[in-house]
Amino acid sequence: MAPAQMDERAVAILTRRAIGLLAHDEALTELADADCATALVAAISERVHVRTDLVQRALDAESDEAISVMCRAAGFKTDSYSALLRMRRRKNRGVDSAPALALTFFSALSRGSAERLLPRIATDLGRTFGARGR
Asked: CB 3.0-4.6 Å disulfide test: which of 8, 39, 87, 125 passes with 54?
């Protein structure tokens, strides 16, 4: 799908969400299934108050840990998180771990625990970015 088509798809999904035709979790699932990574990053960033570049790094990381914590803190449910994992695997991200392990980690993580872990995750992502940027 061309970038313009993905943007149109994201706008259509988010519009349906805004007018109440989709629940938040359903919108996240549709965005992931449509490979609308930019819209997902923006949604996660807005919900967890973490810079979009750090959310993007977590989404692109080889490990599922950071994005799992962010998704749980953002209020993702298992279905939308599973869709995000499928999107990551289609882009060859997180392929070193089994999706079942990522889902188990996500399911065992409470939203409160994820919110407490989030500052450390964001700091680690920023530190990694800073080291590469030098």
From this structure: 125
Side chain identity, residue 59: L
Residue pair 28/80 in contact by the 8 Å Cβ criterion: yes
79 token code pair: 């279905």
The number of angstroms, rounded, from the C-alpha of 49 to the middle of its chain's C-alpha atoms is: 13
pLDDT, tens digit only, all 134 positions of the chain = 455 555 899 999 999 999 999 999 999 999 999 999 999 999 999 999 999 999 999 999 988 999 999 999 999 999 999 999 999 999 888 777 788 899 999 999 999 999 999 999 999 998 875 544 43
Q: Which domain holds residue 66?
A: 3-133
Into how many domains does the chain fold? 1
pTM: 0.86
- Cα–Cα dist 34/69, whole Å: 22
